[in-house]
Amino acid sequence: MVLSVNERTFTQEVLESPVPVLVNFEAPWCGLCRIIHPLLSQFQTQCGDELKLVGVNADQNFKLSNTYRLKSLPTLLLIEKGIVRQRLEGFRSKDDLRLALEAIRLTYTSQEKIDTAEVRSQESGVRR
């Protein structure tokens, strides 16, 4: 189950979270929001405690919607230590979203892969 967050709880649950948080801005009338729910639930299960998934009703939390300049729903923000690291909006299909979520999951749930990628990019920078 996705934790529902509002303007009152956003700072504590998202901005001050010790782990990265994927914030799903949605609305009850948004068909695509409902369609992606199973995919987001699966993503949350795969990530375990290394990433947190929360939902925000954009209609009921207008200040947050304005603060993060939502242009369309659903909009997903990956927030780490209070900073927006990635913004996902305007998906063309469930597969687009699935690929983006998989990239996030691999980045944030496998420290060894991150370290290896950083070493490779540093090595490639030195060779040039």
TrEMBL record:
Domain Thioredoxin: 1-106
GO CC annotations on file: cytosol
CDD domains reported for this sequence: TRX_family
InterPro entries (alphabetical): Thioredoxin-like_sf, Thioredoxin_domain
Keyword annotations of the record: Redox-active center
Gene3D superfamilies with a match to the protein in the record: Glutaredoxin (3.40.30.10)
Molecular functions (GO terms): protein-disulfide reductase activity
Any one GO biological process: cell redox homeostasis
Signal peptide: none
Family recorded in the similarity comment: Belongs to the thioredoxin family.
Protein name: Thioredoxin domain-containing protein
Organism annotation: Dolichospermum compactum NIES-806
